[in-house]
Each structure stands twice: as C-alpha cells, then as structure tokens.
Amino acid sequence: MKVVLRNPRREIDVDGVRSVHALLTRLDVVAESVLVICNDELVTRDAPLKPTDVVEIRPVVSGGCR
Amino acid sequence: MIDVRRHNANFCRDCFLHHCREQVRKAIAEYSMIEPGERVLVAVSGGKDSLAAWDLLRDLGYEVDGLYLGLGIGEYSDASGEYARAYAQRIGGNLREIDLRADYGFDVPSGAKVAHRAPCGACGLSKRHLFNSAALEGDYPVVATGHNLDDEAAVLLGNVLRWDTEYLARQYPVLPGAPGFARKVKPLVRLGERETAAYCVLQGIDYIVEECPMAEGNRHLGYKDVLNALEERSPGTKAAFLNNFLDRAHARFDDVEIRQERADLQPCARCGSPTPGEVCAFCRLQERAQETPRDVPVAAPVVRERS
Fold first, then answer.
1. Which residue of B has its CA nearest to A57?
2. At the topology level of CATH, where does A2-59 sit?
3. Per-residue pLDDT tens for A9-52?
4. Which has the least CB within 10 A, A44, B12, B181, B195?
5. Which fold does the domain B2-208+215-306 belong to in CATH?
6. Model pLDDT, residue B301
C-alpha cells in the first residue's frame, strides 16, 4: 500500500500489514503522535487496511506555533 | 473515525465534534475564561490548534476575531499566513494582522541572533507583547491562544524537572486581566493534539502541517515525546498529570510575590506597556535587532484588518 509521510512529505510502499496498528508498529511510529487518514478518511488504530489503500500518517505534535 | 484512548472511546464524526465542543465549554466554565458578551481576540498562527480554537469559540456563540502575527520565518510564515487568511475568508471572519518585519523592523530570526537568545524565546516575547497590546488597542478584554492539553503537560514537565516554582505558580489556564494586561485564556486545555488535529480534518479546516523550522529539536518537543511514550503505555497519563496539578498542587505554588510583581509595573518609556524597568523587553529587543533607522515609530501596534 502507498503510505504518505509528512515533515517532509514523502511516499513509501509498505507491504504485508493489515491494520493501522500493524502499520504504525512496522514504521516505529507512536500512535499518540499522529492521525491516520486512509483514503481521505480518518481511521482509528484498530482499523483494517487493504493493499490498495492510500494511507497518510500525519504528525500532530507541535513544537512551536499553535 | 477517531479513537481517544483516555476516554476509552472510538467516536463517530458527530459525537467527536460534540466531544470537542463540550471539552471547550467545560474548560471555559471551570476556569471562568470568558464572560457573556466579552469580545475575544484569538491568536491565530495558521496551525491546527489556533484555527480549531477560533472555530470552536465561534461555534459556542462567542464574538471572536483573529490576530495573525507575521514572524518573518521565511516560507513557513508565508504559508501559515495564507492558511489563517483562508480560514478567515471561509467564515467571513475579521482577521487582524501585524507583520513584525514591516511594522517593527526586525523578525524572529534576526531578533534571536542579535539578542543572543533562542528563536523560541524571541518569538514568545514578541507574541506575548503584541497580542496583549493589540487586544488593548482593539478593546478586547480576552486573548485566547490555542494551547492544548499536550502543550500544557509538556510545559508542566519542564517546570517540574527544573522545579521552577515561579513558572509553576504562573502555569494556569487563565492569566487574569490587570491594568495594562488583557485576560489570557487557553480554552483548548482539555483537548489533546490528536483531537485538535482531528477536529480540523473533520471540519475541513486546512492548516499548516509542516512544523516551524526553528522549533526542530527543541526541549519542548522532547518533553512531548516522553509524555506520548508514557501515554501509549498508560492512556490518560497526560490528562492526569496536568489536571491533578491544577486541582491539587497549583495552589501550593501560588505566590503572593508574583502577584505583587505585576502590581509594581510601570509604563514602558517607548510603548507604554507595563514593565518592571524603564523600557520593556520587547522594545529593548527591537532596539537591538531592527535594521532600519532608530526613528521607526514604536507606539501602538500597526494592526491591519481583513474581513
């Protein structure tokens, strides 16, 4: 599946994961620090994923401006 | 759609939006942040928190205008200003603007360099001064910022690690008004960063996702990393840390001397803002940093209105 990362924006391909939780674990991303947007919809960490999904992992942690 | 583990809940869209409104309503009520009929100036950066704050306060029926401060941090400031303007245009709202470089002859990078202080220090000093003076000039009794639960928990962690009792005494969701000072409130204090981000996504509010390039690697982010790691292991840790401090421990640090300090301030010789010395910290920073001739006026802030 295509995974879009931010800061900086880049795209990677990830295979063999079937849930948001598994994807975040594979990429070593702390779930509390991101939103996950699958096919332009917000999803929870227990949501299933398909190989054809486009998933954005959007960081939410701000260190400066609000 | 969105899981909020400290509430042990997965929310659908409508319930999540209701949740956000309720948390803001509760925070305003609990800390007496805004009285009926008071005009609010929300400090807007183009980021998720300040735009969510503006949207939620409007939704709750408050009279709210925005204030955007152009900090001169290159493309980041250009982009963040565009997001602020786009949101204001979308809601037909009144966005006031101040540009640090155009109006005061310096920006955050040059101010930080000349003053030999970290960019975040020069940025915070400029924001606090200009938000306050713009509020007074525009007759807003209240300034609202987008500080959220995660921000306040991280600040608290830093204050506790240093046992900075003066800052612990000052850390509260409301800073009361006083002569020369508007009341400062943090209505998002019961919402975490995932929640404010999710709120913007679900409401279709575009915001700047990229982080300020000058904030990279700072201590505040480090504290947030630590707290998020704890939160993963034990949901609710951040809220308990902050809320129990406010409920059970803050009063122990409340210091009469700090309140007296505020009472002993006098008008700055250049701009009239309250200051312990002859010239306030912002004017001193400007004097050292500005690249234009010294006769640039430094009286009231130059506030442009867009609506």
1. B209
2. Ubiquitin-like (UB roll) (3.10.20)
3. 999 999 999 999 999 999 999 999 999 999 999 999 999 999 99
4. B12
5. Rossmann fold (3.40.50)
6. 54
